[in-house]
Amino acid sequence: MSPSSNKPGAAEKPGADLSGYAGIRSVLRITPFRRLWIVLGAASFGDWFGLLATSVFAAAQVEGSTAKGAAFGGVIAIRLLPALVLGPIAGVLADRFDRRWTMVICDVLRFLLFASIPLVALLGAPGGVVVGWAAIATFLIESLTLLWIPAKEAAVPNLIPRARLEAANQLTLITTYGLTPVLAALILAALDGIVRAATGGSTPDWAEPAQLALWFNAFSRLATALVVAYGIKEISQGQSDERERTEQSMLRQFKEGWRYIGQTPLVRGLVLGIFGAFAGGGIVIGTAKFFATSLGAGDAAFYLLFGAIFIGLALGIGLGPMIVKDMSRRRWFGMSIVLASASVMALAFAIHLSMAMVGAILVGAGAGMAFLSGTTLLGGEIADEVRGRVFAVVQIGTRLVLILAIGLSSLLAGVGGSRRLELADLGVSISSTRLLLLAAGAAGIFAGVSAFGQMDDKKGVPVLADLWGSIRGRPLMPAEPFVSAGLFVVFEGGEGAGKSTQLTVLAERLRGQGRDVVVTREPGATAVGERIRSLLLGAPGSDVPSPRAEALLYAADRAHHVATVVRPALVQGAVVISDRYVDSSLAYQGAGRTLPVDEVSWLSSWATGGLKPDLVVLLDVDPRTGLSRVAARAEAADHVEAESVAFHERVRYAFLDLAAADPKRYLVLDASRPVEEIAEQVARRVEEMLGAPGGIVHPRPAQGPDTSVQPELSESELVTMEHRT
Ligand SMILES: Nc1ncnc2c1ncn2[C@@H]1O[C@H](COP(=O)(O)OP(=O)(O)OP(=O)(O)O)[C@@H](O)[C@H]1O
Ligand SMILES: Cc1cn([C@H]2C[C@H](O)[C@@H](COP(=O)(O)O)O2)c(=O)[nH]c1=O
To answer: Where is region (Disordered) located (predicted)?
Structure first.
């Protein structure tokens, strides 16, 4: 039996592989997230399609180029206005009301409003009325969007395990800002061509591509409402109960949200950094036309620079996590802002289009990485009950900062004249545009450094060495050189899964075949290990080590065990069968006790000199079944066995995560099956490996943490853990 794939932490690819393609595949296996992503993709396509279509549609209703320009720009401007009006309450509503129903009601209303725009035209209203209604409907739609986005953003972290949040954000950002706008523009253009060709230029009103796009936009919203209402009920489940949410007045919730943002260094740093990045981005956009002119590269340069920023964004979001690997996300966020801002400054010194293109790509890459890490930190580190308000402040603040930065910088760049200064043979143009870029870059660097200072979770660790270490994979120690001539098999699983039973059957079978077999276990296989075991596994209520001390003691037992039992036996060519090994520490101390899993993994890698088992047999069983087997042994339970079922469930899911991350090295078996059936499957796999024609291919020694399986805890469990430790 395997657990539901909806369960956060279920068998999916974790750890170092959680970004990039593998990470994206793993989040798509989580059913509620997959459904949400599909409808959001369709809705985002519909929104871009609708934005382009409403603007084109409004422009088509009036005559004359000035009126057309005003209608086109007016509709887009109206989309930004509601932020000013509704901004303050949007987040409070997302935190106060059930997020699923907030999303559903907003989407049903948006469906009606989108559909009303072409309907008014079809009913024969005059052009002015149609444009007027398009503007009003757009304003209302955008107001609803302001309520919908914080509800959605705050709900997503409740649907996916924290370790997969970054991959989920990668996927969502690429879909929303990369794939769907490009697709929408292409399809709108293609539709326009097809319809006009088919109708010979005299297209009936209802078949106008702009009208069809609006209908699509309307129905994509209806589809989102239906899927969220009936297919993603989990969105409601993540929230605290209704009484808690509605106990306080809205005004109090509003003030509390601001107090939380102002007084929490992480959130303050994030908000400051995000606003700084958007201000810098706005100045680049506002000055881009003048900058392109100052390069003397013509109009096309403007579009090239714009394209370069988008390419950089995509590279930053898509490749960033793979490059920085397990670097602290808080540090990565601050560094990304500094990279984007320093690149804006570098643009000020560009004297050739090629230099400006490189600068623009780096601006985009820095901004993309900051956007991804910032959203992930917001989703993963902010308590559910205030998340909506924080997302609303970020969403509204970024819009305002962007509009102000674009408006002011284009005004200043336009007002300032260009001066030419001759430096040796180089003609360097010093203009107000370049000065603005310099100032924007400096302000951005200041924001990035301040954010970094407020959020740093590795104070005292030199920044560049830390970055370089992460990029290289941070080898803690060279793996110990040794050549295994044997086979290293480990049995893993929860309490009472049947490890000792299976290990004994396998050992007897192999011995019966004349093989040299060493049976061992952790903790306690050696005399030193026995003493460590007695320190570790006392009765509940006895003097048990604290979580970090526990992790160190298991690592100490392991170091001695590997050095004195496992490696010597493998060098001799024996089949070494161990009852538990490194994965037990990752599952129990990492997921169970909630110590950072990558740190526990480092500890084990160091203890073992990187030695990995050739095969891990994972006996998977519901903890209730395993614990009842243990209870039937009529021995007193130790303090680990006496832990809650939730603790043992986390352990179980962590084991499954590890197996899913490296399926070739794992044999996962349903441990509720009869003993003989399991034993047969184990023997078949081990005999296959022993008889492999080319000999056993040993896994390469671990060079870094093998995983970052994150413990999945409910808020109430976290509070309990905090009190206990
Ligand atoms: N497949 C099975 N079906 C039913 N009972 C089993 C099965 N395998 C083992 N058992 C029984 O369950 C109990 C626990 O088995 P065992 O000691 O092998 O598990 P374990 O995983 O080594 O436990 P622990 O985690 O305490 O070391 C024993 O009484 C054993 O006989
Ligand atoms: C190796 C290892 C073990 N544990 C825990 C898991 C079990 O509760 C006990 C060992 O008991 P068993 O009957 O011998 O299976 O120790 C752990 O928490 N961390 C580890 O690394």
So the answer is: 693-725
